[in-house]
Design goal:
Number of strands: 7
Number of helices: 4
Shape: globular
Helix content: 10-25%
Order of helices and strands: HHEHEEHEEEE
Distance between the termini: 15 Å
Radius of gyration: 15 Å
Structural class: alpha+beta
Largest sheet: 7 strands, antiparallel
Strand content: 35-45%
Length: 159
């Protein structure tokens, strides 16, 4: 039974159907029921998703800010990690992945009440490691952060 679950894609969808499912159920909508409780808390909108590419937007809420009223670095990391996760899920591969590294440069701040856009692109899919980059922008197109991440195959099951 465990082997069969491991072979199932996102939310138990058979391989080959995940991207279509994501497009039909999430693209252009606020995400409220993904498998990531932290991601659901962000109240993101999945603007677009293609194989190996995801774009999401989110409003910077008060509970996401530091004492200066800007997005907290940990919250920016969460936004980036979520965008990366959507890009990886879109690959519709049988293996499950978890973050091995997340390298992040904070370039500009964004204030509470403003909206940001995160774009994640899968650069390379290896046998055990996936490399992904992500850039975060304000709605005027100014880059706020950039990151790259390596994710590794895991045999962990989703809870």
């Amino acid at each position: 039974m465990k082997f069969e679950f491991y072979k199932m894609g996102y939310k138990g969808i058979p391989p080959g159907g995940v991207l279509k499912y994501l497009k039909e159920n999430y693209e252009g909508k606020e995400v409220k029921d993904s498998r990531s409780p932290a991601g659901n808390w962000l109240e993101i909108t999945l603007e677009s998703i293609e194989k190996g590419h995801a774009v999401l937007t989110a409003n910077v809420r008060k509970e996401m800010t530091n004492p200066y009223g800007n997005i907290h670095g940990g919250m920016m990391s969460l936004v980036i990690d979520e965008a990366i996760g959507w890009a990886v899920v879109s690959l519709d591969v049988e293996q499950h992945y978890t973050s091995l590294t997340l390298n992040l440069d904070f370039l500009y701040a964004i204030k509470e009440g403003h909206r940001l856009r995160a774009e994640a692109n899968v650069l390379r899919v290896g046998k055990k490691i996936i490399n992904v980059e992500c850039h975060v922008y304000d709605m005027e197109g100014r880059i706020l952060a950039r990151a790259n991440s390596n994710l590794i195959v895991t045999h962990m099951e989703f809870s």
